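Minutes, project check-in

Agenda point 3 was the complex the collaborators sent over. CS summarized: three entities, 1099 residues total, and the question is how they sit relative to each other. Sequences were read into the notes so everyone works from the same version.
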Amino acid sequence: MDWGQIFTFTAESAFGTQAMYFAIAAIGLNIHFGYTGLLNFGHAGFMTCGAYGLAIPLAGGEIWGFEWGQQAMWKGVLIGLIAAGIFGLLLGIPTLRLRADYLAIVTIASAEILRIVVRATSLRGLTGGSNGINGFTTSFQNARPSFLDDGFLGYSSRQSWVLMLGWIFVLFAVGFTYLLIHSPWGRVVKAVREDEDAARALGKNAYSVKMQSLVLGGLFGAIGGMFFVLAQGSVQPTPQDFGTPKTFFIWVAVILGGTARLWGPVIGSIMFSGLLAFTDTSLREAVRADYIPDSILDGVQVGQMRFILLGLGLMLLMVFRPQGIFGDKRELALDAR
Amino acid sequence: MTRLLTTTTTVRALASVAVLFFVLLGLVPAASAQAEEGVNINANFIDETTDERTPATGTVLVLLDADGAEVASTEIGDDGRAFLAAPGPGTYIVQLDEGTLPEGVRLRNEGANELEITLQAGQIRGGIFALEQGEGSGGGGSRFLSDLVSLSFSGLKFGLIIAMCSIGLSLIFGTTGLTNFAHGELVTVGALTTLFFNQSMHLVLAAIIGVAVTAAFGLMNERTIWRPLRDRGTGLIAMLVISIGLSILVRYVLLYLAGGNRRAYNDFGNQSPIDFGPLTFVQRDIFIMVIALISLVLVAFAVTYTRTGKAMRAVADNVDLAESSGIDVQRVIQTVWIGGAGLAGLGGVLFGLDQTSKWDMGFELLLLMFAAVTLGGLGTAYGPLIGSVLVGLLVNLSTITFPEWFPGIGGTGLPTELKNIGALFVLVGILLIRPQGILGRADRIG
Amino acid sequence: MSRFTELKAVDPAILDNVPQEAGSAKPDAILTATGITRRFGGLVAVDVNHLEVQRGLITALIGPNGAGKTTFFNLITGFDAPDEGSWTFEGKPMGALAPHKVARQGMVRTFQLTKALSKITVIENMKLGAPSQSGENFFKALLHPLWRDQEKDIEEKADALLERFKLNHMREEFAGTLSGGQRKLLEMARALMTDPKLIMLDEPMAGVNPALTQSLLEHVKSLRDEGRTVIFVEHDMDVVRDVSDWVVVMAEGGIIAEGPHSAIGENKAVVDAYLGTTHDTALVFNEETTAKIDSAKIDSAKIADTAVTTEIEDPQ
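CS then shared the predicted structure for the full assembly.
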């Protein structure tokens, strides 16, 4: 067991690209679930919108006789955001007037179907089908300032450029959320979470405010998806990248950090990415060093183990610490009532 | 103190979930790769003008692994043949891209653009895609009709299977308010346990054990997780999230134990097709539909006429009222879990018999089950029956190729890979128009 | 604040010449409902031919379990849609308005099961009630200066109301930590933040300990003194007698009698046959649980009440 390597890897992951884009997407999900009480289980769908919305214009391509070259970065970002906004509206219109669980059902289904659609063979010219899209980050990497050419703190030059922008965006997003949540708008949103009918009886348009929240959180999800593919350098329509597992990862990050807490999603993402890397590498090391025999766990199954722990973690957190690891004591007291 | 108690119960519950699977299923070791594996594909059609065998040159073939990821792709050559190299032994799917077939050529069997092939180490196997040249725009009608018949047949079969899987989902929601995202895993547990026992005994025996295990697993879910959570007053939204956690946990424990391959049962697999007018089917299709119908009729009978069934509907209608009129609500909920899980398990077995079994099959069915249940009316007993059959028909019929004379969409149809989208549209449509479902009833507020 | 001045206290004597019968016309009706029907499946939950509510006074709505009182509240406030019927508030037609729009017209309700927003502090609960806040607009919310002054006004008003309702010591606590009675007070105070013309209280005294009942009653009366119209659902006849200017009796979804509490209270048939049998603790408790869910319950409650209501069909 190489503990030094395990810890280096853990620390690197805790502040690496995964933690960064998790944090951004988790801030969006926290607006959904934490502040508004929306059960969005299709966050990966918003990330898909952002990722493909960015990659398709940037990569250039051709479908149905329509051809486009490599576009400027801002166009990709804009298209990604618009796509996510539309996705949010489409999800919200049929569900937000109904009981909360309908949103859960529709989001989980739509996100999965969106992933199936983007990998459809007939859309190969647009989305690259099951191969996804590669080589769209050139212009982004060309814009990298020279002081990052040698990388930073052990991250490669390419990674550190994405990381720098990403973490700056995390700070921006936290500030943005702070302003919103401490405004009368934030008050209405929280009231809707606590009791929709009470808010409506006081003259608040619960449907409209839920829709605003769904779209806003979805935009953060889309931006998270953009940073994800910028860091990865490619878009792959695999379940791990854009399927329901990704949504659940972000859910765990939000709940771990504490729902409806400003820094909760950020802390949760850092902790979760670190934990994930730690269990993963230490298990792999243990398998390699034969502390765990192959008959119990082989290299492939280590990857499955993380999902088993994910499911278990989500359950245990929700049962025993629904307010997160650093939850508010006053809220805890309320839950116990 | 209560908190401590429930803590230990829940921990014990989670532990026993894992232990059960360690005991019931075994590890299925994967064979290691030695030589090269692959698939040889033939794709020819008869040219109607020359009456000659003609290669479908240029048609794109894709090889997918068990997880649905693309591992190789190629085109049919001038000799009407193509070779797809597989990265190792395992189960693969050869997919033919219908859009790339030569002009006017199509699959002889609508929708049959996939071949499932299991390769042993060093094995090369062959496969054929049966093609035919399209008739002119005038004669398309008869083909449309025969498609309609065969797709309706498979849709009905699929709908009956979904119905079995989703009755429990609806009744559990009705009696406890839980939107159980882990319901799909009951389907998988049924199919995979049966698969495991089918290695050493006949499918019928294995299925009985499989269904019993699923029912027991459902009961265990209720007793060790959901009832303690209800008792400590956990909110419905928290329970929904917990059910998602449970779903992931069980799904990946199943993957860990059973591996990621699609597999078929040992019995009833090789049956020769029977032609019946425009319909071609195998004996097991009838077998599946008859079993599904009998169990559904029995369930409907039980829910309508037996004491427990009436109590069940009373609880689904109104828990407080049922409780105050002397119904043992806990017992009813328990019965719903046992029955619902058993049915879901049997549904899984039938689905596995019809197609194949895989660690995440239940989760893939979950969307369709939700669509069916919402369509029929969440919480009702008969709603899922109607909803499921409609969803099953719709999902299958959505891939139909419309005849050329059909206004607007003639000659086109939804690619098979996108067929589940139809279910989503039904779901969204029903939420917009009649959110309480066909049989549901609007809630009272205040 | 401006709407305060518009409201004028009304002398209850204005109702002296109103005929004491169901559906009677009022001198100055703020709410008029006609032909409102709501069915749940085969069951008719509400079937109100005609009802007028006098402006500026306190109207009590009473009736046995399952009489349709809460459903009627839901219909009038837009939380449920009637199968038929129309109603006007301040002369404006209200059919098919969403609940939040109804509230913005100045008709605000409370709920039978108190809806204190648990994980929000008492003062934030109060501030939520204030109408037309520009900071509730998503884009303006981001710019603090745009709503800072309005927020200050709202906070002053909220503090004044908290003082009046004696909740100021709980100002920074989560609403979830309040006692049942305090929640009722908070809900009423919060409703007042909207400056309602008509306030509809669904069982304001249910579950409140006797010590608080008196102060709640005083608050209800003070609403009338401010010139606000109050409709409230209540089971306790003492309370009805104490505060109401007019009583409307519902049974089986329809309105069966109207009049001042003295007339309703003096009517021996009503007291014995109706209030006497249903106003026991078991049934009051039952009513509370009924509210939670669903129409099927109305069904059973109705069966239980049928014997009672048939006797009051003909009070004269």
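Noted in discussion: Strands of chain C lie at 29-40, 43-54, 58-62, 84-89, 92-93, 107-109, 198-202, 229-233, 246-251, 254-259.
Follow-up: revisit at the next meeting once the mutant set is ready.
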